[in-house]
Write the structure tokens for this entry.
Amino acid sequence: MSESPLITSREKLDLVRADFPVLATQVHGQQIAYLDNAATSQKPQVVIDRISSYYQHENANVHRGVHTLSQIATDTYEDSRKRIAEFIGAGSSREVVFTRGTTDSINLVAACLGVQGIGAGDEILISEMEHHSNIVPWQLLCERSGAKLRVIPVSESGELEYDEFERMLSERTKLVALVHVSNSLGTINPVRRIVSDAHVIGVPVLLDGAQAAPHMRVDVSDLDVDFYCLSSHKLFGPTGFGVLYGKAALLEALPPYQGGGDMIDEVDFAGTTFNEIPHKFEAGTPNIAAAIGFATALDYLEELGYDWIAEQEADLLAYSTSRLKEIEGIRIVGEAENKASVVSFLLGNTHPYDVGTVLDRLGIAVRTGHHCTQPLMKRYGIPGTVRASFAFYNTREEIDRLVSGLFKAEKMFA
Ligand code: 7TS
């Protein structure tokens, strides 16, 4: 994207859209309206080009070769770590562990904490609005250790019952693990208050940030959070790559995750010593191209600016919410006061899958189902929702197409 100072905001949007080749794709003979950004976001051409150029000119393994190409790959890869650390406000790149994504980041902490003497009488605190990846790893840990999983309830409008959180938080709590922004409801949780309340009694906090960083500036130092997890592919970077941020002292205290190359200091049959953080948690050849591509995606976002992103997405959220309410049979699920640009809804008694199928025929991509939050769907007594999740490159016209598609679906299933 390049712009002159006189550019209008619509012209800027059109220039930004041109950066994302997938947005020109045709589906069933129509230009795609891609409204499934919470599942994964599209990649700008600069990210695609950077990954391609890495494989064309720089590909070599990292941390092991004396040869020049390997040194270049290592430097570029470690520079990406510095870039990512800086982007999320980490104090040092030592606090940035590369993983396969949010799921892997959470599993890493759960697996490593499990070795650290969590046991009967201890509690892990999560909420009813968690993605399965912030439920199941803790259930597995509790089964192994005898610890108890406690669940903060969610209100009808989709907010954490904060009084319940305060009541449940105690010296038995070993960790609070909560979603920053809900993928199904769009709720933005009051994470600053959560972290500070937990810290009053010395309880560490892990935040699942998969859906937060695509919409807002995340600064882990400012939040004073202990662990923060995110996925590159939801942040306009490649799939299969993500980050676990952890405070250095906490990461140092954890045992290694998986064993293998790169995570060791010295291996002997009598015993092995381990590499320093973050490498201690990174066994095997990593996804080098993804780290480099992700750093490029962050550069792109920075250039765009979170102020513009927030302005654009606030408009999309407000416009879609008011337009959807024109449809008589619509029920919006999740109307928290503080929301990201995600709208979940039901159309009368029509199954979300049927609505999604009609929309797909019109070239409109939404997600339908439980969105990997089955306990949350049970809380609302529904099988799932239709979810439109917006990124900064979406337009009001795409929302108009969604709404007319829904009117059509309503008539078909009446
Ligand atoms: N946490 C949240 C809040 C998520 O939304 C997701 C993925 C994950 C964790 C897992 O991320 P991963 O990159 O490790 O898979 N959410 C969705 C979604 O809403 N639709 O598809 C994937």
